Amino acid sequence: MRKVLAVMGSPRKHKNTDILLDSVLEGIKKYNADIRKIYLKDLNINLCTGCYYCSKTGNCFINDDMNELYKEFNESDGIIIASPLYFNTVSSLTKIMIDRCQVYWSSKFILKNPSIDVNKNRIGMFIATGGAPYKEGHFDGCIPVIDFFFKAINTRYKYNLLISDTDRFPIWEREDILNEGFNLGVKFFE
């Protein structure tokens, strides 16, 4: 059975980003996947301190809920990161989690002993919602961050679902967008 980790990076439950993520997960249910949805706001994840402990050991010295996520990243076949657009990038909750994945980069490129299974084929999706109307470059601040994150966790970055103008037109009122999310979920493992 395939395992999917869905990471919800918004501090707001049952709002635009969360509802859009749920539409994708509904589509993924076609695969009878084991889906684990995690709300970052409910976890205790401390800031990366830049101490370089991971570049010496391949592990992070901080003992918090990130240890659970390290295990989930390693075991998952699909990883979905969902975040609202805050100041043209991912939310601070999401960025804190991403920063703590320095452990993967250090273990792979400094220690040459990856702390994640590099032979596992993982698929990645990024979901983002932005309140403002769409304009060119609206999501440009987060795409490189998410791209490097997926590379660090040995995940093929395959899908984006980037939705603008949610302040005026909330996700729950946009059947076309909910269907788009569902359909991306249906083809997630194709």
Walk me through the structure.
With 190 residues, the chain is of the alpha/beta class. It has a single domain, classed as Rossmann fold (3-Layer(aba) Sandwich), CATH 3.40.50.360. Helices cover 35% and strands 19% of the residues. The chain contains seven helices and five strands, in the order βαβααβααβαβα. Strands 2-1-3-4-5 form a five-stranded parallel beta sheet, with helices on both faces. Helix 6 (143-152) links the parallel strand 4 and strand 5 (155-163). Helix 1 (16-28) crosses helix 7. It is globular and about 50 Å long. The chain starts with a strand and ends with a helix. The mean pLDDT is 94.
Descriptors:
alpha/beta, Rossmann fold, FMN, flavoprotein, globular
Write the layout of secondary structure elements.
Elements: E1 3-8, H1 16-28, E2 34-39, H2 53-57, H3 66-75, E3 78-84, H4 92-99, H5 102-110, E4 122-129, H6 143-152, E5 155-163, H7 175-186
Parallel strand pairs: 1-2, 1-3, 3-4, 4-5
CATH architecture label name = 3-Layer(aba) Sandwich
Structural class label: alpha/beta
Give the mean pLDDT: 94
How are the strands ordered across the major sheet?
A: 2-1-3-4-5
- Global outline: globular
* CATH first level: Alpha Beta
Global Rg: 16 Å
Q: How many domains, in number, for the residues?
A: 1
Strand content: 15-25%
Give the full name of the CATH homologous superfamily: Flavodoxin domain
Distance between the termini: 15 Å
Write down the secondary-structure element order. Answer: EHEHHEHHEHEH
- Fold-level CATH name: Rossmann fold
Count of DSSP H/I helices: 7
Low-confidence stretches: none
State the helical fraction.
25-40%
